[in-house]
Amino acid sequence: MTTTAPRPTAGAPAAHAPAAPAPGTVPSTVPSTVPSTVPDTGDPRLDRDSAVDVPALAGLLLGHYPELRRQARALMAQDRFHGVPGLPMAEHRTRVLEQLRALAAEGDVHRAFPTRFGGADDHGGSLARFEELVVGDPSLQIKAGVQWGLFASAILHLGTDRHHDAWLPDALSVDVPGVFAMTETGHGSDVSAIGTTITFDPATDELVVHTPFPAARKDYLGNAAVHGTAAVVFGRLVTAPRGGQPVDHGVHAVYVPIRDRGTNALLPGIGSEDDGLKGGLNGIDNGRLWFDHVRVPRTNLLDRYGQVAPDGTYSSPIASPGRRFFTMLGTLVQGRVSLDGAAVAAARAGLAVAVTYGNQRRQFAGPGGDEGVLLDYAEHQRRLLPLLAETYAAGFAHEDLLAAFDDVFSGRNDTTESREDLETMAAALKAASTWSALRTLQTCREACGGAGFLATNRLVGLRADLDVYVTFEGDNTVLLQLVGKRLLADHAQELRHLDATKVARLVAERAADAARYRTPLHRALQTVADVGDPRRSAGQLRDTATQRALLVDRVETMVAEVATALRPARKASPEVAAALFNGQQHALVEAARAHAELIRWESFTAAVERTTDPGTRQVLVWLRDLYGLGLVEQHLAWYLLNGRLSAGRARTVTSYVDRLLARLRPHAQDLVDAFGYGPEHLRAEIATGAEGRRQDEARRWARARRAAADAPVPERRTARPAG
Amino acid sequence: MTTTAPRPTAGAPAAHAPAAPAPGTVPSTVPSTVPSTVPDTGDPRLDRDSAVDVPALAGLLLGHYPELRRQARALMAQDRFHGVPGLPMAEHRTRVLEQLRALAAEGDVHRAFPTRFGGADDHGGSLARFEELVVGDPSLQIKAGVQWGLFASAILHLGTDRHHDAWLPDALSVDVPGVFAMTETGHGSDVSAIGTTITFDPATDELVVHTPFPAARKDYLGNAAVHGTAAVVFGRLVTAPRGGQPVDHGVHAVYVPIRDRGTNALLPGIGSEDDGLKGGLNGIDNGRLWFDHVRVPRTNLLDRYGQVAPDGTYSSPIASPGRRFFTMLGTLVQGRVSLDGAAVAAARAGLAVAVTYGNQRRQFAGPGGDEGVLLDYAEHQRRLLPLLAETYAAGFAHEDLLAAFDDVFSGRNDTTESREDLETMAAALKAASTWSALRTLQTCREACGGAGFLATNRLVGLRADLDVYVTFEGDNTVLLQLVGKRLLADHAQELRHLDATKVARLVAERAADAARYRTPLHRALQTVADVGDPRRSAGQLRDTATQRALLVDRVETMVAEVATALRPARKASPEVAAALFNGQQHALVEAARAHAELIRWESFTAAVERTTDPGTRQVLVWLRDLYGLGLVEQHLAWYLLNGRLSAGRARTVTSYVDRLLARLRPHAQDLVDAFGYGPEHLRAEIATGAEGRRQDEARRWARARRAAADAPVPERRTARPAG
């Protein structure tokens, strides 16, 4: 910074951040410049008594683990855990490793681990804590995820007691920074096709880890480029029992030291390459690893789900190779669960910044000559408030997911079905919320104009870091296909309960429906009786049961249509079946997306029903309606084409959304304040009140100037200048 | 990079970039692994004779200035003009300043300037050259834009001969890096409200430049933080003729030296602050400037449109202060025109990377055990090909915009009306293409998975740099409102030509239409006669006249609806009128968006009609149809609600879009190759053929292993292991 001239004299020259509230308390970031009266939106039904009880709502949003979240936020309020924009990559990596060790020293990073390792066997609580790290620095969060969520967790879940004793203490303390070596350059989301081999050699009682071709190199691995000294390596386990024919037992994991713990030099046979600079998360040293016939003791196999005897005989508690593979991978669901939560946290932080700024920033003079705050402009509300509603929905859905996760991992409800449900829900919500977060952060940055583009206002950095969340731990598009396939399987399951006659009738009905699609719309959803009065229509769309019926019906119908289209595949050749499936891929992905939207809406609705304060509940109902009717508006063509809404009723959707925006606008600041982030979490100058003070100074100056006797008069009020 | 182990032995260990083709020639980036036969999509109408003449299409895409674009690309193929990912900010800034001077030394940066300064008075050609800089480094492009497009251009367009003689040579050579000091912290897009004052002091014959309050500090200015030694400063010109009442003549520009050209120290009275790290474009030293009663000679006023005499008398060739303001700002339209072109170039580069990778990358085994290339998956096509169509449309529209710009600035067609048309078109297209570029680059990055997130593959860097294009040189949302207001004015103009009876009839008809909206759909667009056969319907939607009718009708209807809703504003109080306008803001922005889409579609259609090669033309027709019907699909609810499409016909839109995707898929590589970027422009490892080679090696290895006698057999083909 270079300054040789005095700063302008009017008012405070620059921002002073308000004193940080005690960590864990709900800060009031409401600036003094926000009008305290509700602007008159012209809607006579605007309920002026509706008001958000911000601390109570903040409590609701803290979910199942309020204390753990508060503690984690208190830690993340400390400078030492903050990302520093613009730090060179090498320094950023070192800083994050130090932060990781500082976190370990604080304790409680072990919550998910057994008590004998200092843990609490608390799986849900551990994730809740972990998710909060994102406001410190997403690099810290993901490095923590690599170390404890992937590397140590793989030892815990895929290994047995002797592995735990040998390796968990150093993994938990970060004395051994670890690599989770699953993804290969040639195979990301299709883990079953990886090429690395783990071959048993009975002569030496060793496993030989090998990278047979370049595309089989491990890639994008956190800790691989610099810090990692050991890795859990996934490969195809090959053994030849008693010297017989070698058998490929599919994907297994083995613990492999990769660097000397003293010198950090790569061990013999290990190759590594730095992935270099990335679009974000540059505090993590992602890199490649490859193996040239690297030998480790047979006992290094993490063999909970598959053991090799000294004579090469393979055994497993799970007979089916397919089920075994999915059981091993299933332990990784926590990654997706926690990314869902972290994405919600990042979107909340972005909205807190943009809404606060939108309530202070003034632009374009109104009829009285005074400039309006941005959030009073209808288009600004259209851009931000639906994302606020979506982020609320995503947050409530995440808490439900976290509860389901804890039920399974605590053993309270650990069945094949509950695991499958959990995996489907995690895949659907992770895809939905990571994409939402990117869209939200980008819109927030644009809504803050040039100020939003400055690193000091956080939005661009958060967006850059969150970018890869949409393709890692399962590419979102691939995840939605998994969800879609599960929906198809459930649909088939339902049909199986019907007898043949009923199925035939169902098919006939569907054919009749299809014929009707070609005629003008006559069909109406039974629960949504058509009435002519748009006011009453809007009232009905506001109804919880109507919204649910519309959203459920869409998912079910979309899935049924795909199932019907795929019916011929059962008797077709594999090639024709594959082509048929490819032809339905887009429709299946869209159905999965609709399913995720429905889950979120249901969670939001359940949360509204838990809300007791009437004012808060009223505002949350509006926000839930904005989310629900926003979805209906977005998919309006589908509802029209499939006869679920008449044109008359459909036309009321947008005007009702507009009314909701006007109703919610006065509560926008409360709704972002309830996220509970203080200035030490947001760390965005434009969300500190600085903009409001600047605007106040400018307006004071303008008023003083107007009042002055020697004030210049505008040219248009004088005689025309000489031409 | 640390490597202690030999790399895997099969095949080439890493990518070797193919030899770069001579700059200016069309490179063939088609990798050998792309299937040369068209995959069977099951569509009997797939025309196997359709084929793109890539060099001819590349020629068409080079537009009006093929030689200038080729020359600029040849320069940008040189290492010295390339951005270096991860360069620290300070070094990046220095590098870009050096690049700027190297460009100046190459000559031809002066094309837009008069011949006596080494220029060619070639306004359109100059922009075409400038746009191509984006593939070198967007920071270089924007720094060039600040120096020549804003700073030097302001001297040229707002000054007179003596200003040109005094300051243009040093501005053009970059001996004086210059600042274009218009935007203030408190005022971005609303330039008319800036607070900086330029007050004439007759006692010393000087102008006093002053920043009266902090929000009036100049902000986000390129060259302000470090390099700039002079600035064109915009402020409100105040003079008191012959000692009378001071008059505020509105926004004018003055030339102000800000740093010592020898020591680079700030001059007395000048304050500056660095904007610091940004979300992108970190090769540019954006910063703030403020002025504490800084005095410059009266003659420093850039006074083409407003002069101050020594006695303080103000005169201007333009009597109306409003028209004067817009005339002065109108010279800045070239910024928007060139950003439109640069955004298209960046989107093209992204698509070239993602489509090439999608044609080589394999994932998930198909029915024959072989993995498919990504672009054969229907969802991958759905993600990328509509963006390819949109980018083609945006490119053709840009060439039309550039022609309109050159017509005005060359004086060939410089009327008030043609200037207004140009400004509207530039605002609409700049908003559309900069948003398209962000969406496209993000989708491309996601379509490349983890590889897309690595800086070495360019996509994340391009997206980060392009981010601010959507809010600078006019925030896109503000620009769309300007477009919308122009559409409203045109609409009013049309109504004025009708007599009162006709207007009354029109209003009555519209009311009748509105009534019909509430009933099931009966209305059909006259040009789209409803027929039952979906095949024929699709055929009709494919028809150019039908697409045009649908797109034109939507814009006109939306504008007319807003106009009708605003009608009461004419007789209302300013407050009520403002509220009414705010209530229509979203609809007006959407109408402007639809207008931009229509312009693009028209330009695409005109380009198709200029295409003579039948195979190329056929493919371009499909691509244009994909763009046009993609728009109809996107806005399907509108067409249904407003009775423009029956449900039956609307249902054919998506299936026809799917058919177009299958038809275009085999031509995707040709369509991105025709963009004419070689590896030296794309500089993305994944677009060099490296991925194809890796995949080939992996497949060779798998085949060899299957053939080997001692190959492991999959467990599922053996007896079950012991449990």
UniProtKB/TrEMBL annotation, chains A, B:
Q: Which keywords describe this protein according to UniProt?
A: FAD, Fatty acid metabolism, Flavoprotein, Lipid metabolism, Oxidoreductase, Peroxisome
Q: What EC number(s) does the entry state?
A: 1.3.3.6
Its EC top class is oxidoreductase
Q: Where is the composition biased (Basic and acidic residues)?
A: 691-700, 713-723
Main localization (coarse) = other
GO terms in the biological process aspect are: fatty acid beta-oxidation using acyl-CoA oxidase; lipid homeostasis
> What residue stretches are annotated with the Acyl-CoA oxidase C-alpha1 domain?
330-488
What Pfam families has UniProt attached to this entry?
ACOX, ACOX_C_alpha1, Acyl-CoA_dh_N
Q: Which regions are flagged for Low complexity bias?
A: 1-41
Q: Where is this region: Disordered?
A: 1-49, 689-723
Report the protein name in the record. Answer: acyl-CoA oxidase
Give the organism, scientific name: Cellulomonas marina
